[in-house]
Amino acid sequence: MQSENPQPPVSKTLAPFRNKVFRSIWAATQISSLGWLVQTVAISWLMATISASDLMVALVQAASTLPVFFLSVFAGAIADNFSRRWVMFAGHCLIASASTTLMISVGLGFVSPWLILGLGFLAGCGFALNDPAWHASVGDILHKRDIPAAVTLMSVGYNIVRSVGPALGGVILAVFGPLAAFALAAVSDLAPISAIWRTKWEVRSSPLPRERMTTAIHDGVRFTAMSLEIRAATARAALFGLASISILALLPLVVRDQLKSGPIVYGILLAGFGMGAFIAGMGNGFLRKVTSQNRLVAFASVACAVCCLSLALTSSVPVAAISLALGGAGWLITWTGIDVSVQLASPRWVVGRTLSIYYALSAGGMAAGSWIWGSVAQNYSLTSALEGAAGALLLVAAAGIVLPVRPWEETDQESSVFHPPDVALDLKPRSGPIVAKVEYLISEENIEAFLGSMRTRRHVQSRAGARNWTLQRNLQTPSLWTETFRTPTWMDFLRLNHRLTAADKEVAQHLLSLHEGEVPPQTVLSIERTTEAIRTRTSTIFSRPPR
Questions:
Q1: Listing from the earlier edge strand, what are the strands of the sheet with 467-473?
Q2: Contact 405, 233 (CB under 8 A)
Q3: For position 174, what pLDDT does the model report?
Q4: How does it sit in the bilayer (predicted)?
Q5: Largest Cα–Cα distance of the chain, in whole Å?
Q6: Which of 155, 78, 148, 73 is nearest to 344 (CA)?
Q7: Count of CB atoms within 10 A of residue 199's CB?
Q8: What are the Cα distances from residue 363, in Å, to 59, 235, 431, 474, 482?
Q9: How far apart are CA 100 and CA 103, in angstroms?
Q10: In terms of Cα–Cα distance, which of 488, 467, 249 is closest to 374?
């Protein structure tokens, strides 16, 4: 629930904790994450002991991330069309089911590599449902200016738990065995389920009916593809995930084969990774002040490359722990920076889908990376895999030149108020196609400024749903320009206008200032009709002033 009171332009790191709903779900998520990390240690080590295949060990990471790749876009469309609160609830129920089943299976002595991977996949389906809905809900629960701090707190919170969870998992695994670790995970999953059940928050509802899932997915993909900021951030995330997952995917093999140690050392090293992420998270605000976001993400990739190279060359546990702290810092800085960039570049109507596409491609990169680096380790050597990953991370850092992560900007991404025009026909939601035309009178000296604004206008209208956008200049009256676009149906036209944000409509205001006519430009709407027999041969036209 957003506060209407004026706030300072830059939020302090802990400001989101003032909100009771965010605080409650955040705390419950950390409890669940603690159980999940304990379970991850137990699963990874259990797989390393029951399977001789290096590839199967590396695929433990892929099993829980692959569903995010396949299902996130669908889950994002669900998060934008249904109650995000209940989508989160369903996701955590899936995660709890997977943990409980694993606990029962281990208790009965029925465990196999494929069962472990299968239940990891089921938990991954729960994450695919929960994560887009939870991250998209941050903008519903908090004020927009608090989003960067909230995303940082979510990452820092997870990495605080990461500092404790793996070490705790190693101790539980060594002292009590895997069954106790799986039991703790199953119980901890009840915390977010309870928190989501008890809390509620207000969400601005759309006056329009829900979109069909296929249409919603198509619109989300189109918006993402047409947004330069989101497209670059998502591509960067996929490349970083592919290269950096080598650190976590190969760490059990580093501990087993290179450090000649057991689960306690594995937990300690993961705790070092989490501690580095925690320190970076607390200093993230300061780092953003001293350098650009794009350069910061590039430095983070270099830090992860140094981590991989150090792990490939060392046989010392303290050196490995320090290296992993550096890798954890790079990991948090990269994912936090990209996550916030995607959120702030996305209007509320599509934020679940843009986040889900970002999660899908980054998870796909991590799943592919787990398989690639595991295959390299199995067919060549562990050292070769880590050195190859270090080289790939340096290339990802260099990719910032062509795929820059844009600075965070607090633009108004809320949908503006739109009043449907009065029409002379009884239009149904599926009536169409609808053709919109807007005429402008532009003087010769304003043509360059007009064309520049029209380039932005085309981008804004097209990513909101406009089709076949064109701009024509009248040959008999050169000062007369006509903007034309189509939508498949009347409902699509209404959705397009509801999706335009206040920032988008600033473009229309600038065009209005360039218009030389005595009256504002009029939007003329038509519905196309076929000339086939028994069909209406006329096109009904009506007009309205632009809004």
A1: 467-473, 480-487, 434-441, 523-527, 541-544
A2: yes
A3: 76
A4: Multi-pass membrane protein
A5: 88
A6: 148
A7: 16
A8: 13, 12, 39, 50, 44
A9: 5
A10: 249
Residues 6+ apart with CB under 8 A from 254: 269, 311, 320, 382, 386
CA–CA separation, 430 and 493 (whole Å): 10
Residue 230 contacts residue 344 (beta carbons within 8 Å): no
**How far apart are the C-alpha atoms of 40 and 49, rounded to whole Å?**
14
Q: How far apart are CA 499 and CA 80, in angstroms?
A: 13
Distance in angstroms (rounded) separating the CA atoms of residues 347 and 223: 10
CA distance 345 to 524: 31
User: Which SS3 state, helix, strand or coil, does residue 248 take?
Assistant: helix
Give the residue from 499, 338, 476 showing the smallest Cα distance to 417: 499
Burial of 190 per CB tally in 10 Å (0-12, 13-18, 19+): middle
Q: For residue 424, which phi and psi values (nearest 5 degrees)? A: -90, -10
CA distance 458 to 395: 34
Yes or no: say if 273 and 162 are a contact pair by the CB < 8 Å rule: yes
How many whole angstroms separate alpha carbon 57 and alpha carbon 167?
Answer: 19
DSSP state of 421: P
344: its two tokens:
């702030």
Burial letters 103-125, b for 16+ CB under 10 A, else e: bebbeeeebebeebbebbbbbbb
pLDDT at 322: 93
Measured distance CA(73)–CA(214) in Å, rounded: 11
Cα separations in angstroms, 43 against 109, 158, 499: 14, 19, 45
* Nearest one of 219, 94, 175 to 488, comparing CA atoms: 219
Q: Is the pLDDT of residue 299 over 50?
A: yes
Residues forming a β-bridge with 440: 481
For 323-366, the pLDDT digits (tens) are 999 999 999 899 888 888 888 888 878 888 888 888 888 878 88
- Which residue carries 């209005």 as its tokens? 512
Confidence band of 409 (pLDDT split at 50, 70, 90): low
pLDDT of residue 539: 44
Identify how many contiguous H helices and E strands the chain contains and give both numbers.
18, 5
pLDDT at 156 over 60: yes
Distance CA 536, CA 29 (A): 59
